[in-house]
Amino acid sequence: MDLSKTYDVLVVGGGPGGASAARFCSKKGFDTLLVEKRQEIGAPVRCAEGVGKGIENFVDVNSRWVSKEMEGAKIYSPDGTCVDMSHESAGGEVGYVLDRKIFDKELVRLAASNGAEIRLRTRATGIEYASDGIYTKLKRNGKELKIKSKILIGADGVESKIGRWTGIYDSIRLEDIESCAQYLVTGINGIDMNYTHFFLGNEIAPGGYAWIFPKGDMTANIGVGVLPSRHNLQMRPFEYLNKFIESRPELNQGKIIEESYGGVPVAQPLDSLVENRVMLVGDCARQSSPITGGGIINAIHSAKIASEVASEAFNKDRYDSTVLSKYDEKRESILAKNVRDYSLKNLFQSMEDSELNSVAQCLKGIEFDSLSITGLVSELIKNDSQLAEKIDETL
Amino acid sequence: MIEVDNELCGHCGACVGVCPESALDLIGYKVEVIGNCVECGRCVSVCPLGAIEIG
Prior knowledge:
A: alpha/beta; D-Amino Acid Oxidase, Chain A, domain 2; 3 domains; 28% strand; B: alpha+beta; two-stranded antiparallel sheet
């Protein structure tokens, strides 16, 4: 880390978005520094670790960081009706269950092997614009320092400061974040370990869902996400999770070997993620899917786009928000999908348990191999006119 | 003013994300009040573990 020079790109945050931004930028030959406030990449885990097969477009899949490959997803309505979805139609959220502690380190290793500098235990505390760059104030091992770069990529997660310092956005609304608790449980029995399992219902997880993501060896990530604007403060997400596990004989003999907690943005997608010299990627850019909460592929894809836009900026030697707004244009397909998913999220969250049961009854047994979420909704319209009307109003 | 029980805290940063005053930060593995808390209670609501109370 050289305090006297101007880096081409400084990336703040060492999750999948930040690591990928550093990887793609250093690959293009940009002088890149990645800083991460924690002392370890990939830990603590704040993720259910599911990712779609689309990950293959960005990184060569390796058994070292894949815990288990999935065949599909099973979605259970409050009365237990199961809708079976193959991976093509499950919103892209099945494919693999990862080992994030290894996966995240692999992404950072790729960045490092391209020449990016990496600094752990280094936290951003502010930014300052200069005429020929942007200073990021950092605190490392108790000492304050400043790093100058031409471009700053913010990948600082759900607790992002960079998005706020730049005025790109304000705080996340309580309607737009899932409050999550998850245990890694070993010794479970009687669960189909080739499927991810999603459980809906206002008793199970108000405004969210509970999940079982198998990792192999009778072990799985079991978690719940609830909407803070909906849940009763008398019962916290970890208590919903305890209740979910205790009530199921196939889970309640298991032993917890890891706990993790997280806030997952399920937010109104943001049209603009740029300011002068700054682009945002990943959870800090609220790019996770509003309906599933999955965010890894969007983060990596956006990081790739950001590196391409950085390249254009260097060619023009211009770093203002007009030039960087190309990032917003080029991520249009990601944005459009999240806009649709946000409407669907609002629809599902407005449903009573009886309506969720009705949806599941109507969909069970239908062959989902080629059915998208849009197809799923139109299928429902054919079978339940009252619900169809509600869907019409929402979408 | 809020009080964070750092033994109960799961270090997830959700409270930092919802704070409208940018008054919280997740520093390493610890949530700290770094700004002006207006006692809106949003961090209290979002915490998966109930580690924050208005004191």
